[in-house]
């Protein structure tokens, strides 16, 4: 591990806050202060962070439009022993942000690459959402075109993990609708404006969330978490609650069929439970 006090030469992949400026780590501040150069996705955006932390290290842009052109020069500086930090506008570089080719080529050339970990919107969302967190697939941004988006989602239907997507506010309702078409009634969480003033977590089924955001569009930055297929398995309490409602207006057979369809439970088991509830009355 490289010390923050006297950084070894190399490339430091440095996370910055995703909203709340106080989410900067001590080590990230040290590295940015002591680096010879900071590579920024947008130098104006990084200027705000630097002024908040009294950092006056030289900055230069590194983004998708100039990366191929400037990368050889950066690699040369690194070969010559420079300490260079890579930051993006928010969160962890390379995670739906520039930097992959630089890290890859630096490693290919035997240059030391150090992570300086910190904020990440997907992990922040997952950690506080209540969605199953033991296994997850970071899916990043979906394709924009509806056909490509539907295809991408159809390839994830069997993934036995929470799915983590990045999305923009204007595309939120459409994305949720496409997810409802691909994943049905699965539960999901829309995590919005994390670490900011209007932070919000909203949980519901995909069709309900799609309808809600179609009616009242959201603003801000968004992570969508879709629960894994097995997390949908209804527990006894869910089945009983559904049957109790259904039995108020339906026969035992109809209520059991409705429960089996809605909760994806075996018809026979739903029928036995419906009978027991009816008898208990
Ligand atoms: N590298 C960043 C990270 O580590 O999370 C992600 C950069 S990506 C270009 C931007 C997307 O991240 C946004 O469209 C949104 O989906 C998500 N995002 C970033 N900040 C967020 C926040 N404060 N709340 C919710 N989502 C956020």
- Structure annotation, total helices: 11
Give the neighbour order of strands across the main sheet.
3-2-4-1-5
The average pLDDT is: 94
Bound molecules: S-adenosylmethionine
User: What is the CATH superfamily of the largest domain?
Assistant: Tetrapyrrole methylase, N-terminal domain
Notes on the protein architecture:
The protein is an alpha/beta fold and 281 residues long. The chain has three domains: 110 residues, Tetrapyrrole methylase, N-terminal domain (Cobalt-precorrin-4 Transmethylase, domain 1), CATH 3.40.1010; 105 residues, Methyltransferase, Cobalt-precorrin-4 Transmethylase, Domain 2; 45 residues. The chain has eleven helices and ten strands. A five-stranded parallel β-sheet has the order 3-2-4-1-5. It is elongated and about 80 Å long. The mean pLDDT is 94. The structure holds S-adenosylmethionine. S-adenosylmethionine binds next to helix 5, strand 7, strand 8 and strand 10. S-adenosylmethionine (SAM) binds next to helix 5, strand 7, strand 8 and strand 10.
Topology:
Blueprint lengths: L9 E5 L11 H9 L2 E4 L2 H10 L6 E3 L5 H13 L3 E5 L12 H9 L4 E4 L4 H9 L6 E6 L4 H9 L7 E7 L3 H12 L3 E6 L7 E6 H10 L5 E6 L9 H12 L4 H12 L3 H14 L1
Parallel strand pairs: 1-4, 1-5, 2-3, 2-4, 6-7
Antiparallel strand pairs: 7-10, 8-9, 8-10
Helix pairs in contact: 6-7, 7-8, 9-10, 9-11, 10-11
The protein binds S-adenosylmethionine (SAM).
